[in-house]
Amino acid sequence: MDSLQNFETPNFTASLSMATTTTTTTNPNPSPASDTISFSSPPSSSSTLSRYENQKRRDWNTFGQYLRNHRPPLSLSRCSGAHVLEFLRYLDQFGKTKVHTPLCPFFGHPNPPAPCPCPLRQAWGSLDALIGRLRAAFEEHGGKPEANPFGARAVRLYLRDVRDSQSKARGISYEKKKRKRPPQVPQPPSSSTS
Ligand SMILES: [Zn+2]
Questions:
Q1: Ligand 1 centre and the CA of 120: distance in Å?
Q2: What separation in Å is there between the alpha carbon of 99 and the centre of ligand 1?
Q3: What's phi and psi for 69, nearest 5 deg?
Q4: Per residue in 103-159, pLDDT tens?
Q5: Is the pTM above the cut of 0.85?
């Protein structure tokens, strides 16, 4: 699991507690960013923002905070896909999705009958949606599409990898249910989907 670069920065836990809670934070202190691309809210924002827009703004603020806390300091203009991957791995510590290791007896079980010590991670679906929002926010804040770190190939590959590995570990298929199931599949038909 730790074959990739470790990203252990305990200091972030205190300053970036937002991701640990499920309560909706209203972000009371939009601190001004000294970057070329602003992290503050766009002036056109009204009180009737959609849930998506609100979430996007929170995600953008979270990422801005992450950059400000980054050591060595990192500005958005120098942010690459590799830094986005760092960010995603950093978020894993706040994850709530059990992802079984291949050694776990529940590997591949969608509904394990007992607890196990496998790590909690961010679910692929959450990360995928997050990257989509951040990618949009980047360009809304003046970033150039060709320089969008959230659209980097490395990020796409990483997300695909997370999807495949979590699909195996959790016994859940993320494929759309369009394809016909081949008849010789040894497993019983899944009863979890309706
Ligand atoms: Zn497990």
A1: 10
A2: 7
A3: -85, -5
A4: 999 999 999 999 999 999 999 999 999 999 999 999 999 999 999 999 999 999 999
A5: no
Half-sphere exposure of 17 (CA within 13 A, CB side): 4
Tens-place pLDDT, residues 62-103: 999 999 999 988 999 999 999 999 999 999 999 999 999 999
d(CA 138, CA 145): 8
Asked if residue 28 has a cis previous peptide bond (ω within 30° of 0), the answer is no
What backbone torsions phi and psi does residue 100 show, to the nearest 5 degrees? Answer: -75, 140
What radius of gyration, in Å, describes the C-alpha atoms of the chain?
19
- If you ran DSSP here, which 8-state letter would residue 113 be given? S
CA of 96 to the centre of ligand 1 (A): 13
For every residue of 66-87, DSSP letters joined together read: HHHH-SS---GGG--HHHHHHH
- How many A from CA of 123 to the centre of ligand 1? 15
**Residue 120's beta-bridge partner residues?**
98
